[in-house]
Each structure stands twice: as C-alpha cells, then as structure tokens.
Design brief:
Number of helices: 15
Structural class: alpha+beta
Number of domains: 3
Strand content: 15-25%
CATH class of the largest domain: Alpha Beta
CATH architecture of the largest domain: 3-Layer(bba) Sandwich
CATH superfamily of the largest domain: FAD/NAD(P)-binding domain
Shape: globular
Number of strands: 22
Oligomer: single chain
Length: about 500
C-alpha cells in the first residue's frame, strides 16, 4: 500500500511562511498531516507595509482570523481602491476599485451600456458607476449591506508588515504548529527529492513534502535539480524598492496613492499610526545614493527614520514544484508591488497546492498540474502589472518611452487589442483581476475603444438610458451610506477626544 504524506516542512520567513504553515495545518491536519515550520531570519524592517487585495479576507476566514482584531493589531486600514496619478502627463488620476462581480444573469456587462452612452455624449465617467470607486472618493468603506442587491464591492488592507507577520506566527503556535528557527546549513537530496535539511545549530528535519516560502532566496528550490528562475527583465525596468515612513494622515483615506515619476513610481499606504512610503525605481535612472533624498519630494510628505533600499527581480521559477519541494509566494513568483498582489500570490500558491496536495509520499504527479496552473496564474498577474507600463503616456522620458516599447506577451496583446476594438476583456483561467479591473485600468490609461458589443444596439434606447441613470443613482446613494474609514476602524471617537475633528 502506498504511503501518504505525513509530515510537511515549511521553510521560509515572514507572512508567507506562517500563512502556508497555518493553511496546510487547517486544511489537512485532520487528515493526519503534521506541519513543521522552519523560520529563517526575517527580511522585514519597521517601515515595511503589506498592501493587499480583498482576496486576503478569504484566507483569514479559512484560518479563523478575526478581521477587527487583526486590523487593530497591525495598525491596519481598509482600502477600497488604488488611485493612480501621473502615469499619463496631463491626464486626470484614475481609480482601480474592487467591485464584486454581479451574479450571472445573461445580461451584458454594464461597461458596454456605459460605452455606448459615452460614444453618444454621456459625460459621466465609468468610475461614477463603480461602488468601489465612489466609496474611495468619499473616504468610505464598502461593507456588505445584506440587502441582496447586485451592487457590492470589497476592500483590501494596508498592514504593518512586521506586526502582521508576528500575529500570524502567534496564530500558528496556538494551532500547535511546531517551529524551529535558524539558517539552512545543508540540504540532503536523493534524486530529485529532499530527504532532510540541517539548520546551523545542527537540528535535522525530515519530511515527506517541503514548502519553500523563503522569498527571493529560494533556499530550497535552488538546490533542486533543474531549478531555474525566469527573469522578466525585458518587461519590467525597475530593479530597486525603497521603503520609509511618514506621519499618519489626519483623516484616513479609503485608497492608496500610486504616482509615477521619471524613473518609476511612489506609493503612499495609509496606516493608523503612520503612512508607509514605498518607491519602486530603475537604478540606472535614479541612483540609490540620491533616492532617499528625493523620496520626500516625490511623496510630498516629510519622511522620518531610515529609508531602506532593496533589490527586486520580477520573474518566476520555471517549475515551482520539483520532486517533493514546492515554492510558494515570492519564492515562486516575484512581482513589484504596483497592484498590491504580494500576499495574494502567496495565497494563490497555497490554495493551488492544497487543491492538488499529493495523494502519496512516494510519487507526486500533482507537480505537473501545479506548475501549469502557476504559470497561468503568474502570467495573468504579470500582464496586469505590465499594462500599467505599456499604456503609460509619459512621453519624452527615456524610462517611460522604453516601457511603452517593451515586448508584450501574447496574452496581454490579446487583451489590449480586443479592448481597443470593442471595450471587451478576454478573461481566462487563473485570473486575479476581473473584467472591471481591466476596464478601469485601460480607460484610465486613455484607451478609447473603437466600438462596443453590437448586441447593445438590439435593445431600445429608453430602457438603456433608464438602466444607466438608475445605476448612477444607486451607486451614489449606497456609497454615502457606507461608514467612513475612521468610523470603520473606530478612530472617530479618538479624533474627537483629541480635538482633531
């Protein structure tokens, strides 16, 4: 009789380590799977922040994490959207929000109604028909109303990275996950499988399955036969990230701010006790020496404390599962944080792994399915991030001119061409970003579709006009009913007591 996987060793650091360990234990512990965590030295600094997509909430529900307590512990703030500015010189900023997909009804996407109206003189932008965008502009949090209506939106988070990772570690400990800490001194292989790892203190750990959550170090995966990291250097010109802190904002916004400049972009992420400042840039345009001095000017905020610079290398492992070793998070797929997808990548890898968790400890044909899904998953996220650069309109700047001319993957080219023709997005398997996300991005970047779905013309004009007007009224009314960010996090009373509001 074939033997099942009994022990899983998760080797890594920070949030990815503890999310993976806790999720595997929660999902498979009752089936007899024992999880061991090996904690490597943290790469986080006090200034670091996790900016997340709404999908993280589903991971929290799986792990039984109380949202309010988590946000309070990690100085967290709900984020309804991202606001992009200066990606096209002279163009107005635009929002990317997280509206929920309506239930299937056979109707065409609302964006097609809007597009026809726009071509016939409608002067109201699509953002005003998005509940998430409306909430972001008003400083509101799109919470569930429970009325069963089609209009709903979700929100991501801004989280203090170190505190959040520590909270996950404590959760794993409470769930009975045994952990060790140190550095990897040796990895013992037999064929294409890991038999054991040894820590620098002499501790030896054996397991049936090893999960590499070590980030860019890929401490286990790069020991595996045939392991290769595929750089996306030709698509992404930024190779540095700098993080710092600024004072907390007097009134918490419902969005993060992403502003382009001559050599990259700078992001402002609201937290309760500070504002995280992150810039991603090309070191051949802006030097590491000059960037800390430029950061306050770019952020338009005084920066306090030390700014930390690190190298980034976007790309992915050609095979994130080899033998009995599986990479998750940044170890599998490395992205710059322009779309707040870092923890979503970790979550996506973990979810795919659990879905194809090996049935036996001796042979693991599930690796092929995982590798195929991860390539599709990574390619879709890469394409969305790349679209920001390819569609930029910052002309006569070497970095941005080069970004527009970058080689575009066929999957992205298909989306761009189809949208330019008829305002439609080709959504495939393993997509992270919805039709609405892509539509807001391309319209915000200045793409003007030549036409629209011809089926719209089969409907009488009067019902179309009423549908558009009703949607606009409903979004405006519902957004104003939502709580402000300060109300959501319970900060209103504190501000009033301090005489701030």
């Amino acid at each position: 009789m074939t033997r099942r996987v009994e022990t899983v060793a998760v080797v890594g650091r920070d949030a990815a380590l503890w999310l993976a360990a806790a999720a595997v234990q929660r999902s498979l512990g009752a089936a007899g799977v024992r999880v061991v965590a090996v904690e490597l030295p943290s790469w986080l600094n006090a200034v670091d922040c996790y900016s997340t997509l709404p999908s993280l909430a589903s991971m929290h529900r799986l792990l039984g994490i109380d949202e309010a307590k988590m946000l309070e512990a990690a100085s967290g703030v709900p984020v309804a959207a991202q606001r992009f500015s200066n990606w096209s010189k002279g163009a107005a900023p635009f929002f990317l929000a997280y509206d929920d997909e309506p239930p299937p009804s056979g109707d065409l996407p609302f964006s097609q109604y809007w597009l026809k109206g726009h071509k016939e003189g409608l002067r109201v932008g699509l953002e005003d028909f998005s509940l998430g965008c409306a909430c972001a502009k008003l400083g509101r949090v799109p919470v569930a109303t429970g009325d069963g209506g089609e209009l709903s939106a979700s929100y991501g988070y801004s989280l203090d990275a170190s505190i959040y990772a520590e909270a996950l570690k404590q959760l794993a400990s409470k769930r009975g996950i045994v952990s060790s800490s140190g550095k990897i001194a040796d990895v013992t292989l037999k064929g294409d499988c890991i038999r054991s790892i040894e820590l620098d203190d002499g501790t030896r750990i054996e397991a049936d399955l090893f999960i590499d959550a070590s980030g860019a170090e890929r401490v286990l995966m790069m020991k595996m036969p045939g392991a290769k990291f595929e750089r996306w250097k030709d698509q992404f010109g930024c190779d540095r990230i700098i993080t710092a802190s600024a004072a907390p904002l007097k009134s918490l916004p419902a969005f993060s701010q992403i502003s382009a400049f001559r050599g990259g972009w700078v992001g402002l992420y609201p937290l309760r006790d500070r504002t995280a400042v992150v810039a991603v840039y090309a070191s051949d345009v802006v030097s590491d020496h000059s960037m800390p001095g430029e950061l306050p000017l770019l952020a338009r905020m005084a920066v306090s404390g030390e700014a930390v610079v690190a190298e980034i290398k976007p790309g992915m492992l050609e095979r994130p599962w080899i033998g009995n070793c599986v990479a998750v998070g940044d170890a599998a797929i490395a992205l710059e944080p322009v779309d707040a997808a870092q923890l979503h990548v970790a979550q996506g890898c973990i979810s795919h792994l659990i879905a194809v968790f090996p049935a036996t400890a001796d042979e693991m044909p599930e690796a092929s399915a995982y590798n195929k899904s991860m390539r599709s998953f990574a390619g879709n996220i890469r394409d969305f991030a790349l679209a920001h650069y390819v569609l930029n309109r910052r002309f006569d700047e070497l970095f941005w001119d080069k970004a527009r001319e970058a080689e575009v993957p066929a999957t992205l080219r298909q989306k761009l061409d189809l949208f330019a023709a008829r305002g439609t997005v080709a959504i495939g398997d393993d997509e992270t970003f919805s039709d609405q996300n892509w539509t807001l991005l391309m319209l915000g970047a200045g793409v003007e579709p030549d036409g629209y779905d011809p089926r719209i013309d089969l409907l009488p004009d009067e019902p179309q006009i009423e549908k558009v007007q009703q949607r606009l009224r409903a979004v405006s009314q519902l957004a104003r009913q939502m709580p402000s960010v300060d109300q959501f996090v319970g900060r209103t009373e504190q501000l009033q007591a301090a005489g701030v509001v």
